[in-house]
Fold:
Amino acid sequence: MKQTSVAAGLSHRCFFGNDAVLKTTLAATYSKTDAWESMFDADMNSSPCLDFKSRYANLVLTSSLNKKYSSKHTNKTGFTFTNMHYDMDFDLAPLYANPMERISEGNGNTNLISAYTGSLFNLNDRVSATLGVNGQFLTLNNRWTIEPRAAIKWQASQKSSFGLAYGLHSRMEKPDVYFVKTKTPGDEWVNKDLDFTKTHHVSLSCNYKVSDDMNLKIEPYFQYLYDVPVMADSSYSILNRSTFYAEGTWVNKGNGRNYGVDVTFEKYMTRGLYYMVTASVFNSGYCGGDGIWHSTKFNRNYVINGLAGKEWMMGRNKQDVLSVNLKLTLQGGDRYSPVDEAATLAHPDLKTQYDETKAYSKQLAPMFLANYTVSYRINRKKASHEFAVKGMNATGYEEYFGHEYNLKTNVIEPRRMKNAIFNTVYRLDF
Structure:
């Protein structure tokens, strides 16, 4: 697979009287992905099984105005204009050594226009409130949304504060979903009229300053999603999407819900030492086109992260820095659907078939990951040099990539792969 990405940007900021600041940014991105894969028959002749091409380009213009009307009222208003171009073809051989067939194709362009305004009101020395509204308009199908936002914060004491926030949020899907075309003559966009996916989000925050360099934050939350694209009479939902292409017809009849609590304990850097512990306990579910509630693919139920680092000043004048950083993660295992063994064994290529009526009801064992970085930075008057060693997945955890039939053991088993990365880095700043 070959992938190329290019990004460029231009930013401009203007200052006016009465504490007003106008900022405008223009950015462009371009990405190209080409993939070709072949398989070999008994005579070792190459037979292509996959051909994939994807190109997209975005031109983004943003502008915002910050204005302070008084000591009790500050407002920020702005807009974003995004012009998107998309072109993709995806061919796949349905069975071993068969000719490839067009699975999905699409091309086109569209614009997404969003605008917002929000005001911060300092009601008194301890209470502040934020009120705002966001709007989006997709020119492809003339779909639009109006999203109210509100929050209030109470500074109970010098050490503790509480906040309550609500917001309606929405998003368009990736362009390939909208630009999927029919396989039959007619060349129509079957998903052109899809609406935005929307969610009501409510969160409560409790913040406590343990000491000058330690802070504890607890944030329970609840999300309710609706107008989620799903496939009719299927458990499949766009919320579980992990493939790099889209196919089929979607309808905005799905739902989802997420709730949980996030806890963060942080020690800011003092005497070269810092650390942070975050824990999240949650539940994530969805209702697909089958009308049944399931766990989402990403419903791990819990994630615990520990991050710590230490810096030492080195050198004759204590101008160089030796730093060591470590991140540990413990989280619930991957979700997967039960394997339909009979359907798998009946498949001509023994391709794994899953029982989608019990989508993501199974879960693998918890996973433990460790990443580390050791670096030494040499600071000089005109330049600085940094040497670093970085390790990702030092524990050697084997990531889950679905189930497959093992021809040696005649058993359907999880397919796992260890992605451990070790890097050495040199950086020059001048």
Q: What stands out?
A: The CA atoms of residues 312 and 418 lie 33 Å apart.
